[in-house]
Amino acid sequence: MSRLRPADLVLYLVTDPVLCGDRGVVDTVRAAVAGGVRAVQLRDKTATDAEITEQLVELSGVIGGRALLLVNDRLDAALAALARGARVDGVHLGQGDASVLRARELLGPDAIIGLTANTAAHLDELRRLPADVVDYLGVGVIHPTRTKPDHPPALGVDGFAAFAAASPLPCVAIGGVGPADVAPLRDAGAAGVAVVSALCAAPDPAAAADALLRRWRDGAVPRVLSIAGSDPSGGAGIQADLKSIAANGGYGMAALTALTAQNTRGVRAVHVPPAAFVRQQLDAVSDDIRVDAVKIGMLANAEVIRAVTAWLDEVRPPVVVVDPVMVATSGDRLLEADAETALHDLLQRAHVVTPNLPELGVLTGREFDGWGDALAAGERLSARSGTAVLVKGGHLTGDHAPDALVDAARGLVHEFPGIRIDTDNTHGTGCSLSSALATRLARGQHAVDAVADARAWLRESLRASDTLQVGCGNGPISHFAGLWERGGTDARPTADEVVAEWWGRIAGIRSAIDELPFIRRLADGTLPREVFLFYLRQDALYLREYARVLAAASRLAPTEAEQAFWAGSAQNSIVCERELHTSWIASAPGGVDDPAPATTAYLDHLRSTAFGGDHGELIAAVLPCYWLYAEIGARLAAGEFGERPRDRDHPYASWLATYSDPAFEKAAEQALRYVGRAAAASDSAARERMFRAFEASARHELAFFDAPLPTAG
Questions:
Q1: What does the alpha-carbon distance between residue 318 and residue 320 come to, in Å, rounded to a whole number?
Q2: Which of 15, 116, 257, 429 is catalytic?
């Protein structure tokens, strides 16, 4: 690896043979690298140099260049492993270990050399060294840790931030780093986080690494490189990619693989620069900028494909999305036939491949008889290439245009239904979707969620495309429709901004609930028992039907995670209703009430919203039952309405505990995230419809809480 290129140290595993346990260091590293670890430091203070050499040779084969391999302290072992043909990228040295000058002399200019540092004196010593001797600093400890009991005083995040600001070199945070520290350390200037127990002791190191990476990426602006051809009309290729990356929250970069003469009616000519020049563009970017994701589009010949493949093997970007541009929307063939073999080799480096149906047909050597046949072809391509495949149904006939994410290795086939949007403006849709997907994956989203959100953005852009009036053929989509509809100055609101606005807009409803006699007397324990039992009977009737509404939300959910959440919530509603009957209602006199007018009105609203089939409006309508109850329950438990309930003397303490329970609070937070994300991804009209459904449910909650005392007299 050239030292001109910044080392990717974002997620750095330091091994510990004791914590790895029976699984062993090698299998732990194998899993962690599969989960996204970008650097591995072999550290074993008790092993001999010969044993370290053997481990380095074995780890080199396991890692296969997908991550940096360094060794702690054992310079001689690193040299011995290199002599045996292993790929060892460098060493990490402590202040008392082998001299960094000797390490640089023996390992050469391309090796990665890290140095432990944590004091101002260490920085002073570093500045006295010649330039280009040390590549990065390992700075810590951040928190006290048992893996290194003789560590110096903990710096904390603030101490690390001050050290990193003073350091002339990239700083990797190490020592007691847990998942909650990742984003704060990133914001404090860390080039990466080094972890030991968080991966070595994890039951599933791959999943743990993936989770840590998502925390690093969450909220960060990803740097996304598009490798594709140009489109002078602006609707496809590099031009569309850069718009899509920006619209989905990334910083776009581009390496041109072809110059085309095309417009919305077709391709007239293609000029392909030499493969060596393509490689020079790629090196110019990656030698200076850490690339978080790559989207690959048009690669016109085998030489260019091989140049890109070689670069991928060297740089190993954490996210690679390949849109195998072989057939344009107009029907023009854009890939030379003799390049298909090289393309199949490239696909094995991808994380997701996004062919349209004609391209999927070329890649699998067959034609399709309907959607089911296309899904089967996608599974075969996924199994053959070892990557996920987004099968796109835009070329199907009829009113439906579904997509599906297929991953044969995981046994995943997740379908995304969709009604065809009536427009001819489909120029560059494949380019735009794939670059949006790459950006969202780089932001840390799971693949299914990333596809769902990228599709929602694309469909919004398609619906607004007629307003552009560009070209006489298949026109482009409106990439920034979500921005322009807000007046051209403000970006689309974030999920947090949406829910904060909604909470403020129902402030009057919330205040009215706070003042209800039912709430006040429930809080101080003076609520008559018959009034409380009436409320519980109505609540049981409500929950029984609410479960059916939640089941409808699960059926309409765009992702597996959301489907599972709403289905689980439906089950919990049924369980809660049964527990109400068992613990309170069944043993009480009075039998079962008929639905009160407030209960009937609330359920009618929810049923009618569910019948409309709009997932966004439906989950907005069910949200107040989570949000308001969780908020009121937490405040009741905290004593904000008067005397704090206690188990020994409060008659309704066990019921109040249900709604101040951490599990219910967690469920409410998850519902809030899903609704906020759906609203943020919607256009302004859809977002306002969601709010109206939400506001109506909040008013029904007010009426529901108001009903017991007047009804009971």
A1: 7
A2: 429
